[in-house]
Amino acid sequence: NAGAKATDGELRLTIAPATEGEPAAEIIAMKSLDPGITSVEEMLHVLDHRLWEINDPFLYRVSARTRDVHNSSADERSTTCGFRDLRFEDGYFRFNGCRIHLHGALYTVLQYPVMLSVPYDDDLFRRDMLNMKMLGLNLVRITCGAALPARMLEVTDELGLLVCEEHFGARELEPSPFMADRWNESVRQVICRDRNHPSVVMWILLNEVFADNKLLRHAAKSLDL
Description:
This protein is of the alpha/beta class. It is built from four helices and eleven strands; from the N terminus they run ββββββββαβαβαβα. Strands 2-1-3-4 form a four-stranded antiparallel sheet, with no helix packed on it. A four-stranded parallel sheet has the order 8-9-10-11. Helix 1 runs parallel beside helix 2. It is globular. About 15% of the residues are buried.
């Protein structure tokens, strides 16, 4: 609320198939919005939801729309997501309840012609991912940093390709009194940014840290984070 006094707000949350179809769930809530930032939490239940599968990557779109009931001011945001489950159970990986053999390839974000870490043509990444699917791979490890914001993971969500994602603090950091806090923040930010993407199934904590050092021991204790 950018105004100087509280106002009554209407919050509409909707989840529906990402491409077309009727909403699967919707909530309309009335909230008093004080000046500044107000955090609102609601839960939507999607009955008989369709799973996101490698060969059927079905996506939902979640939309949040808020408006001031006293005037026409409104704002809306949306993001896609999917329902899926990957776990390690009884010695095997299981994806949506079925045993799966994970086999994939490393994909560095520093390989594009001319611009190196950012493709001059977004279709370069899409073609790489399509080639991986055609080879029969089901997993890609994005390394040397996190995926490009939204653009890369939207493609893997759409194509049904599982992702292991790195963060920018995964390489060996210089010793510093701030090392642990900086590493924690690097992990936290990439997880908070990309956690809605159903294609992301693993987070890479470290990359080519060879020695038993302070960073390695810190990462080993970081699962609570």
